[in-house]
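Methods — Computational structure assignment.
A single polypeptide chain was analysed. Its primary sequence is given first, followed by the predicted tertiary structure written as structure tokens.
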Amino acid sequence: MHERFSGPLFLIFFSLLLPCFSSSWCRDEGGHRSSSSPDLMGFAGEGSPASGGGFSENGKFSYGYASSPGKRSSMEDFYETRVDGVDGETVGLFGVFDGHGGARAAEFVKQNLFTNLINHPKLFSDTKSAIAETYTHTDSELLKGETSHNRDAGSTASTAILVGDRLVVANVGDSRAVICRGGDAIAVSRDHKPDQSDERQRIEDAGGFVMWAGTWRVGGVLAVSRAFGDKLLKQYVVADPEIKEEKVDSSLEFLILASDGLWDVVTNEEAVAMVKPIIDSEQAAKKLLQEASQRGSADNITCVVVRFLDQPPAKNQHASS
């Protein structure tokens, strides 16, 4: 969840850029176990932590999740953990979606992003392009359905797609993906913050501005520089994902996806150290959630752990048969 500043600064920003907003409105067109009820799948529910997990049918990975409102009175985090068979291939799809301005945007992305992706014709032939196009398409669908009551709703998306021996991570916003490779913690996504030099330049080039209002914010309003939704700020707050691909081999131990409710109080290295000795992915996700809560995280907390099982050693691609 990202605090929106809704006081006088927003009114000033809105009045200055109303023509821009108006024009942008015209352009917007496997096996599983769970301790949450089916109706709450992907949403922890207010006051009730959820956890669960499972294994892929091909036995190559296990996964687990844990999600809680934490100290918040409302819950805007959603998550997705699914293993699908697509054209005879096993595809793992994992995501954390942290909403702001209400839960609608995060819920929409959770419900539609992966369904849109597995129907993309280039899912296998050009996975990165398929992901980028699916992010953009899903954002457009969300914006078309926005009304005057929820046009300031938005969501991050930190996702991981497992296709064969490839792990493809895509990120929008400040949820984060971290892997453990060879015992080392490696961030495979970048938090999108308005004060980053390239993000600030992109926003200013589009006619927006970044200013300090408790933290650096787009137009003095939003503390992330990329997100789904955010119709009023769409000209500046884009849903273009940064995508990174990792090879799944014997050095890749596990992946952590989590909302900033974890990363606000736990470093990448600390998270990897906590997960490393815990073989059960659900228990590992629960450990991260519990630790974040004990450290005083003030936000919703959602963690997904994917552990890679018995991967063959990396092969020399030029070796003769």
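Note: The chain has a mean pLDDT of 86.
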